[in-house]
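Example 149, ligand coenzyme A.
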Amino acid sequence: MTTVRQYESQDEKAFRSIALENYIEQMKESQAVTAETPAVQAYLEHIIGIQAGGKGLVLVAEQENKLVGFGCLQLEGEYAFMSDLYVTPGKRGQGAGTLLTEKFEERARSMGASRIALRVDADNAGSRNFYIKKQYQEKFVVMSKALGG
Ligand SMILES: CC(C)(COP(=O)(O)OP(=O)(O)OC[C@H]1O[C@@H](n2cnc3c(N)ncnc32)[C@H](O)[C@@H]1OP(=O)(O)O)[C@@H](O)C(=O)NCCC(=O)NCCS
């Protein structure tokens, strides 16, 4: 069974490990990166800092006392922004992503937000499909360009 609860400081070791997995998958890293790689360290500190700095909250999904997923939520005006939603590959398709999203929607409402939003890579067809199934609609377009050295 999957359960979702707020991140606690004793989760830190397991959390860093699953957040590193997410970083590697999202960045499509070709080189070997570890928790000591500076960019990874910055990412991990950023994620942990969201809740520690009072800027928002981090929820974790667990199965049999093992972390299988997580995500973050931050309030900006009427919007609650969800970010970094991640379920470990072997545990996908079992409802953990759905449970995390439902809990974020509940928490967003109780924080006073009237809308919930997130940013997703245009080429991340799987996740876009996941959110569309949950009645999320495309509302903004973020434009991006690679800046050569
Ligand atoms: C997106 C993600 C969090 C979904 O988590 P999950 O636990 O697998 O999702 P669920 O099991 O709750 O799936 C819910 C529904 O979405 C669908 N779905 C989930 N991932 C999908 C995918 N990659 N492609 C197509 N459909 C998908 C499921 O089939 C399911 O449909 P159903 O309700 O009709 O059965 C997970 O795939 C993930 O971690 N992806 C990599 C990280 C990522 O891209 N995160 C989003 C950043 S914005």
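Summary: The mean pLDDT is 94.
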